[in-house]
Specification:
Blueprint lengths: L17 H14 L4 E3 L6 H11 L6 E6 L1 E4 L2 E4 L3 H15 L6 E4 L8 H10 L16 H7 L15
Helix pairs in contact: 1-2, 2-3, 3-4
Length: 162
Amino acid sequence: MCLSGFHLDQTTQDGKTREEEGIHVLHRTMELGITHLDTSNVYGPCNEVLVGKAIAGRKLDCLATKSAFKITSAGFGMDGSREYVRSAVGKSLKWLDVKQIDLYYQHWVDRTLPIEDTWKALKEQLQGAKSRTRDAEADVIPTCRGLGIGIVAYSPPGRGLF
């Protein structure tokens, strides 16, 4: 979910900042029982900082974020390299102000290198993370299971709900 950055203007019609409005939306969402939040580093550091502020002191079942999709001076690009994954995880931990991300995954596929390279880089980042069981189609699971990686559907039905 992107509550800041390039998707939205930075102020609302009533003069509130997008951060204030975003934190209010997330607090209300959690009050209503939503316990799985998903963001991305490509939404900008302001979005992960916003999510971090909103979840501070609150219990979630799953905090998810992702990388491999990035904004460069040339526009949007993909980077599934080990170095980028490691850097992106570190930045997300800092911006979210957490010690652990429950689910960290690949936002888009970097077709310039074998997908296994990105998945291995993601697996390296699992140190200390909780293991969770996820179900998916039988033809996808064997590869992911062998690497210890979960699967998340792109743009689940809840997109736009908030």
